[in-house]
């Protein structure tokens, strides 16, 4: 195991493991915990703010959302953290790993939860998932950013991040140093610019994190050592990309894993559709297709009145390219809608996908993932995209020291955001993003060298059959519009079962991809949170591991009810008996 120095910190007396001392009220605060010195935040300040931002990016913490009362925990959990950087053999960049060891850990009832960051988030990106379930139970929880994360590198300032997330000169920035093309400028980040295609190794990141946890337990409790997979229960969990990662970990050889709970997994399997295919198709067609759906059926924000002119223009652009039919906007929108339905999109997924259109998420995902799959260096994106701060004139500008100081805590792992913009040199009116999005789509559908390079990277991420011998539960919202279950979890479960692997599969009606969006009234009217079912699923799998219950391995569809304007009740969730 390739590892740098392990940093051990204590978190007690107002600075706990689960909420960094903020508690539920502090996590609900609309402004982040302040840095005393905006240019030089301390490690304690960076950690607290990272935990705040990652909780808020994953969970619905709104007062009516039910977190902490109907489901979930923000208990004060004192303990220690063991932080390091681990590198897989042959990789350019490390993944950041943190073991959280509660004081209540019982060496006689040994349990480790591997909690994997969703999306491209930093190492605390799954606090609301595995940590919220495992830490209050006294389990050790080990986190990994799976070689993505927020260790952004400013090429022009020649500055990166150290092991603690502090901004440091490039020659001492050990968390991430990008692969750079000649003349590269702006900002690079690990998921896109490490040269590793990290998604292909997400399962190995999970296993390496589990091995690190056992090693730290050996060192912490030498009288009770060794801690091994044979005497320590190990369960892996995550949502979105984290869900895909734990399913990939389930493939790996060795008797090291006792159970897996995967939520809304981004998993690429034969018979399904890869995220890059889905994202580039949606970026082009979905803005027009949504005009064929009743305005009242779509969640807000974004406000439809603000985006409808762009959606209308997209219909005209697609018509002029011969991609859709119809003379009127209504006919064109119906044509785009029909195409998406023919490709497997449900209207529920389109409802959930409206946010990804409004927030330009499809393009952001496609740009970053194209770089990762093709292992392109910063400054050589095949469609010309780049990342930089943007001035009031909409042109690239240098970042400021204060902006950079907040990246590790505040970033989501994929810009735009946190003062970093997505630079598209192909933008042109009247349909600003069309040319760039067509280029991105060509990397999936085309025959050129770049398309072959990207598709090769996508092929490297394809899932295999999970091992036998431990329970696996997959949970997915039927209205997930970012990684629709029809393209991901459903074909994965079918393939696993066809290979003789008993897998439980829960689908939750009216759950979409982003619980945090339920804080918006329009989302609360239409959707339900997924996290309660993750916690329930973890309880069920843990009971099976302990021999106290049997996990159902058939399909369970949960007809959950949105809370609307009222406070969420447990009866709304209709959790399985």
Structure description:
- It is a single chain.
- This protein is globular.
- It has 19 helices and 18 strands.
- With 577 residues, it is of the alpha/beta class.
- β3 and β4 (95-102) form a beta hairpin.
- Strands 1, 2, 3, 4, 5, 6, 11, 12, 16, 17 and 18 form an eleven-stranded mixed sheet that branches. Strands 14-13-15 form a three-stranded antiparallel sheet, with no helix packed on it. A two-stranded antiparallel sheet has the order 7-10.
- The protein starts with a strand and ends with a helix.
- α5 crosses α6.
- The longest helix is centred in the middle third of the chain and has 19 residues, at 202-220.
- The count of strands amounts to 18
What is the makeup of the main sheet? 11 strands, mixed
The residue ranges in which pLDDT falls below 50 over 5 or more consecutive positions are: none
Q: What is the terminal separation in angstroms?
A: 43 Å
Fraction of residues in H or I helices: 25-40%
Name the overall outline. globular
Radius of gyration of CA atoms, rounded to a whole number: 23 Å
From the helix content, strand content and strand pairing, which structural class follows?
alpha/beta
